[in-house]
């Protein structure tokens, strides 16, 4: 049995909109930590985190143009674990939800636990949560499929076009880990071709971005699928594809359920 050691790690989420989504529990982890590591969306958000703790160390410096992202995430986890091994109470603070499209927190927690340290993740408000609210989308009505844009391009997936399709990190569509920070129209054209296997060219799609600052508005730009390669797509944008066909009833299953009748009163 692995013995629990003194250092600890807590990875928490700030949520999306600055100051609005931070939970009391996440704030408590930040305030009580010996050292805080911040992997957040921009300098304004990082400055806000620094107001909550005297020792905040940015993880943004591990990113570099042309540097493979796998190496970046490994170095972020290394930095947090180094302090945990010294017996420190470490808090990793991440944009949105620390477990959603965030490899470093998952890796750091798994490695810390394997070494016998206490390591936890506290959820935060993610872009997905904001998307449902801003677009008025209820995933329980016809269903909703979520995929990373690059994964969607690289693997054959069975897409249910009667449900919503949400493609995350569309600004990095087609990125093979080269560490790009720009959106390539040629890769967007390939993404469009992949979507065209299941959707017509004139199908309407939505480019979505949740607001980071309280005075900002959400981006909810409606365009045709055929216009996607020429669209201005940023690193934080998400592509939302509405259904293009109705749900198909299953008469046989409906009949079997109807044959069960009402349960007898007890």
Distance between the amino and carboxyl termini: 49 Å
The count of DSSP E runs of length 2 or more, i.e. the number of strands, is 10
Averaged pLDDT: 91
Portion of residues within helices: 25-40%
Rounded to an integer in angstroms, the radius of gyration calculated over CA atoms is: 22 Å
Which stretches are low in confidence, meaning pLDDT under 50 for 5 or more residues running?
none
Question: Any key phrases for this structure?
Answer:
globular, 5-stranded parallel beta sheet, about 30% helix, single chain, about 270 residues
Overview of the structural elements:
It is a single chain. The longest helix has 17 residues, at 69-85. Strand 6, helix 7 (149-154) and strand 7 (164-168) form a beta-alpha-beta unit. 32% of the residues lie in helices and 19% in strands. The mean pLDDT is 91. The chain has 266 residues and is of the alpha/beta class. The chain contains nine helices and ten strands. It has helices at 24-32, 43-50, 69-85, 103-114, 127-135, 139-142, 149-154, 185-195, 251-259; strands at 8-13, 35-39, 56-58, 89-94, 118-122, 144-148, 164-168, 204-209, 219-224, 238-241. The strands form two sheets. It has a five-stranded parallel β-sheet with strand order 3-2-4-1-5, sandwiched between helices. A five-stranded mixed β-sheet has the order 6-7-10-8-9. Helix 3 packs across helix 4.
């Amino acid at each position: 049995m692995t013995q629990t050691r003194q250092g600890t790690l807590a990875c928490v989420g700030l949520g999306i909109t600055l100051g609005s989504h931070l939970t009391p529990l996440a704030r408590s982890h930040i305030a009580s930590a010996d050292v805080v590591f911040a992997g957040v969306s921009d300098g304004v958000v990082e400055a806000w985190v620094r107001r909550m703790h005297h020792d905040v160390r940015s993880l943004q410096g591990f990113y570099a143009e042309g540097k493979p992202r796998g190496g970046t995430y490994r170095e972020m986890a290394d930095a947090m674990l180094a302090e945990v091994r010294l017996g420190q109470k470490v808090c990793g603070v991440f944009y949105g939800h620390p477990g959603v499209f965030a490899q470093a927190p998952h890796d750091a927690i798994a490695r810390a636990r394997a070494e016998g340290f206490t390591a936890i993740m506290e959820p935060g408000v993610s872009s997905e949560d904001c998307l449902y609210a801003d677009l008025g989308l209820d995933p329980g009505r016809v269903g909703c499929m979520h995929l990373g844009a690059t994964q969607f391009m690289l693997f054959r997936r069975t897409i249910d076009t009667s449900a919503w399709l949400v493609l995350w990190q569309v600004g990095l569509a087609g990125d093979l880990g080269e560490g790009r920070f720009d959106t390539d129209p040629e890769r967007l054209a390939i993404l469009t071709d992949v979507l065209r296997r299941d959707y017509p060219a004139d199908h309407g799609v939505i480019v979505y971005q949740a607001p980071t600052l309280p005075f900002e508005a959400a981006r909810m730009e409606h365009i045709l699928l055929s216009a996607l390669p020429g669209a201005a797509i940023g690193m934080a944008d998400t592509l939302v594809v509405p259904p293009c066909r109705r749900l198909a009833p299953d008469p046989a299953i409906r009949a079997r359920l109807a044959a069960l009748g009402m349960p007898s009163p007890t």
